[in-house]
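Task card 7
Instruction: Convert sequence to structure tokens.
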Amino acid sequence: MSRLLKKLAVFLIIVLALFIGTAVVVAIFFEQQIGNKLLTEINRQLDAELAVGDFELSLLSGFPDASANLRTVTIDDNRKGTLMEAGNLSFRFGVLSLFGNNIKVHSIVIEDGALFVHIDKRGIANYDILKSSEETGEESELSISITEAELRDVELIYVDDRAKQEVKLNVKNAFASGEFSSNEFSLASFANLQSEFIELPEGRYLAGKSLDYDANIKVNLKE
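Output:
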């Protein structure tokens, strides 16, 4: 019995070594190719400019997911202003999808950054930067269908001119999951926040307060 266990242990070690070796080879030889493919697909789906300082592919740190890490990222809004800045923007996808015909990105992590959300007096928001399916054109080898999103150390500034509301929060950690590409979906979310202030027509609230929430929300983007 002990001999069988030893053989099994040796087999598992060999399999693990082969996997790690394969991951290293893929990261070395295909990092730039995957990075270019990812950036091309993101730009194809955005009606805004995306600027990236550096790119890194990590296949082992989040196994069974791989991470495509974009460093020093800036995304414009639909008014040529800034919608988001991030020290690191990570897209997560299954490692095994690298060996298929389609790389499926399913989650996103935004770290060390800021989000600037503005709704003008006409009710038009600055974050409407996704192209319609008709505008994006032909199918790509890389599929972006986000079902999970996480924010770490992100400043959120929200201004609604029509409702006369202004919010400034520091998002220490927040997680949300749902079928974001659908018009109707259930959103599960929790967060740990530090409120600088929430300004409403009636006055200022929650200045300098720590906040936590855990919520399930029905979302209807059409309404």
